[in-house]
Amino acid sequence: MCFPRAAHEVAAAVRVARRHRRPFVARGSGTGLAGGATPVDDPLVIVTTRLNRVLDVDATERVAWVEPGVLNLDLSRSVAHLGLHYAPDPSSQQACTIGGNVATNAGGPHCLAYGVTAAHVLAVETVLPDGSVTVFGGLEPDQPGFDLRGCFVGSEGTMGIATRIAVRLTPDPPTIATMLLDFMSIEAAGAAVTGIIAGGIVPAALEMMDGQITRAVEDFVGAGYPRDAEAVLLVELDGLADGVAAQVEAVTRIGREHGARTVRVAANDAERALLWKGRKSAFGAIARIAPDYYLHDAVVPRTRLVEVLKRVYEIAGTHDLTMMNVFHAGDGNLHPLIAFDRRTPGVWERVYDAGTQILETCIAVGGVLSGEHGVGLEKRDLMPLMFTPEDLAAQAWMCDAFDPDGASNPGKVLPRGSRCGEIARLNAAATA
Amino acid sequence: MTAVTTPEVSDLAAAVAGASAVVPIGAGTHREVGGPVPIGTEVRAPAGIVGYDPAELTITAGAGTTIAALSEALDSAGQMCPLDPRDEAATLGGVIATGLSGYRRLRYGPVRDAVLEVRLVTADGNLVRGGAPVVKNVTGYDLPRLLVGSLGTLAVIAQATLRCRPRPATTAWATVDAPPHFVRERIFSPSTLLWDGASTHVLLEGDARDVDVQLTAIGATGVDHGPSWPDGGHRGRISVRPGAIVDLGRALDAIDGCRWIAEGGVGTVHVATDTVDALIAARVAAHAAGGWLLREAGGHGLDGFGRDLPDREIARRLKDAFDPTGKLSPGRLPL
Q1: Greatest distance between any 2 Cα atoms in chain A
Q2: Given CA atoms B77, B81, B86, B88 in this order, what sign does their dihedral have?
Q3: Largest Cα–Cα separation, chain B
């Protein structure tokens, strides 16, 4: 394991690993939930947390160059005085790094309107798996040839290590309205989400929490969430004053049509912050229910939310598990969360089996295995649920082009045996 | 070479598998973009809307569908995909393959951010899917992004799913006699800021009252139309750091018979000239400003890109893996 403090040290570390025929893996804060940074095949672990400087901020062009170890929230804080922020805001934003965000193409509540990490990364200085350094993308809008920057973002550390990243900064919206709507059933809340999107409104964020998690959060934070609701929606609308006002009105009407019991609009910044604190503390609040939890991350078409949610709770029921849902409803990104106690005999098998059934349910309605956490190690072997061997071969061609020897974070994303480098290594091992 | 009309994906796959050189073709509006026009069996993708549920805010269509047809379908539900090609006869496949973004990119993002799923025919005739028809997805490698701008050299795009947006209630153009960065500081989220060297042409979209407030903030009145696009026998598109466009514009003004308009905040400069020499001079100016010029039309004899592709070794490996015999759009990218 090493802790480089400069880009050239990352390159040196990669070259040392390669000289000793060892793979390498980059690691930021380790907040990823899919095991993307988990060392496999005894690699050199290159920790990027000491590469934590914001190198340059250009307020006119709205671009910042940062090192990969800069924390997501620290970046937004460092440009707040300019009326700018970095739009992708994962729930772990106090702890996760920009480098890790680039690796997973991270999302967050506000990605509904503003887009995920890939839409905010302009250029990435990268140490390639052979130890050489290049820059993918640039500050000009287009590059000749293939979009290698687009390939690299979300490649989960398997194409090299980012050492400097140019990100787009977003102006703070002049008006923000944060609303809380509560419902007496999950189905009603899900139908309201579909109704809002179908009504031509794309909120800045549209989050759902079910009754159980809402009560846990309320005990934990005291955000003023109703304890007797079966689901709440947190809706944020932003932009110019009149457009926001019209949208608040429309969301209120659509919410009521779908049975919203109360509709509350945060009166000031403090109340707004408190509502968000509740949402962002949800995972911490689980500890009040059970010592362990398994968090899933799948996306379904937004019009299928209600039926999928119903099925998800049924699966939990048949497995005798406690299931909660707190998720990015607006883009159909479910986060079913199974709370359990690992000391219960046989519980792991039930948790695993329920999780697989949930993912199969999502895929069956046209959904995907991961919306923002990535495939990593966790979902690697589930990839054939979604992709044919031909689809996976095309993905392997992409990865192999950047890392022909399979040295950068091996054993992730694609099922074993999909990549050229692996076959080469196996052959080498067989002839050694 | 004769064009093979292919109403079904399976026909397209058979046509691709059976030919030794394959040139995917849509409406031909982007035919000259980039490197030399390739020679081979022309293949066409299916046309038509495959799936559109307005409540989902996504649309799936055959790659041979024209942008005009796509817009018509979206319009019926009050939605849009602001791809904005110069000619609406362009096909979806052509827009994705060239990766040329429209003039409202400042607000709505580039083409590459709008493509959620692609269905491809590979060089050996296999059907491959990349991405998925949902608005958020990080499952596996981003094949759709790789295909955007690949100019038909990696696979033939058969079908795509795009993210849609609600159509704004009000649209207004306004002209301000100040450079784009001056305007940008004073308004929130304009759809485009087109700089012609003297004025910035602003497009505002949204709630009617908000549009009025914004117009007041920049001291302008709304009009129905934006500026006209530079036209001429030779056209190019410069990509440069957005902050460089004002100086670059002055350099372009010094070229005889060079007409241009620049996207403020983006860094795309649309150039049209009457002579190849003037287009070459525009390219020299682009390089001096730290950018590059893509040949879009005309400019015969002129190299498509004017500079080496970055990270050519990686690009070459991608090409070799996707197209081992080099049959797809041969020569169109200088790999």
Answers
A1: 71
A2: negative
A3: 61
CA dihedral B161, A325, A27, A45 (to 10 degrees): -110
Q: How far does A378 lie from chain B, in Å, by closest CA? A: 12
Q: What's the whole-number mean pLDDT along residues A319-328?
A: 93
Bridge partners, residue B170, by sequence: B206
Minimum-distance CB partner of A371 among B138, B241, B318: B138
A chain contacts of residue B269, beta-carbon cutoff 8 Å: none
Please determine, for residue A425, whether its predicted confidence score (pLDDT) is greater than 80.
Answer: no
Per-residue 3-state assignment (H helix, E strand, C coil) for chain B: CCEECCCCHHHHHHHHHHCCCEEECCCCCCCCCCCCCCCCEEECCCCCEEEEEHHHCEEEEECCCEHHHHHHHHHCCCEECCCCCCCCCCEHHHHHHHCCCCCCHHHHCCHHHCEEEEEEECCCCCEEEEECCCCCCCCCCCHHHHHCCCCCCCCEEEEEEEECEECCCEEEEEEECCCHHHHHCCCCCCCEEEECCCCEEEEEEECHHHHHHHHHHCCCCCECCCCCCCCCCEEEEEECCHHHHHHHHHHHHCCCCEEEEEECCCCEEEEEECCHHHHHHHHHHHHHCCCEEEEEECCCCCCCCCCCCCCHHHHHHHHHHHCCCCCECCCCCCC
CB A87 within 8 A of CB A111: yes
Nearest by CB to A173, from B188, B263, B322: name it: B188
Quote the pTM value. Answer: 0.95
Quote the CA–CA distance of A275 and A180 in Å, as a whole number: 8
Q: Does A200 touch chain B (CB under 8 A)?
A: yes
Q: What is the pLDDT of residues B254-285, one digit of tens each?
A: 999 999 999 999 999 999 999 999 999 999 99
Tell me the average pLDDT across B45-67: 96
Provide the token pair at B49: 């809307």
Q: Crossing angle of helices B208-217/A241-257, nearest 10°?
A: 160
Place of tokens 């299931």: A323
Q: Are strands B258-263 and B268-273 parallel, antiparallel or unpaired?
A: antiparallel
Q: Which residue of A has its CA nearest to B207?
A: A243
Distance from CA of A224 to the nearest CA of B (A): 30
Pairing of the two strands A24-27 and A44-47: parallel
In single-letter form, the type of residue at position A421 comes to: G
Question: Is A415 in the B-facing interface, judged by CB distances under 8 Å?
Answer: no
What 3 state SS string does chain A have?
Answer: CECCCCHHHHHHHHHHHHHCCCCEEEECCCCCCCCCCCCCCCCEEEECCCCCCEEEEECCCCEEEECCCCEHHHHHHHHHHHCEECCCCCCCCCCCEHHHHHHHCCCCCCHHHHCCHHHCEEEEEEECCCCCEEEEECCCCCCCCCCHHHHHCCCCCCCCEEEEEEEECEECCCEEEEEEEEECCHHHHHHHHHHHHHCCCCCCEEEEEEHHHHHHHHHHHCCCCCCCCCEEEEEEEEECHHHHHHHHHHHHHHHHHCCCCEEEECCCHHHHHHHHHHHHCHHHHHHHCCCEEEECCEECCHHHHHHHHHHHHHHHHHCCCEEEEEEEHHHCEECEEEEECCCCCCHHHHHHHHHHHHHHHHHHCCCECCCCCCCCCCCHHHHHHHCCHHHHHHHHHHHHHHCCCCCECCCCCCCCCCCHHHHHHHHHHHHC
Indicate yes or no: CB of A142 within 8 angstroms of CB of B99. yes
Q: How is residue B196 written in tokens?
A: 């012609």
- Per the document, the length of chain A is 432
Confirm if A55 and A392 have CB atoms less than 8 A apart. Answer: no
Res B2 pLDDT > 50: no
Residues A316-320: what's their mean pLDDT?
96
**Which ipTM value was assigned to this complex?**
0.96
Give the bridge partners for B49, in sequence order: B61
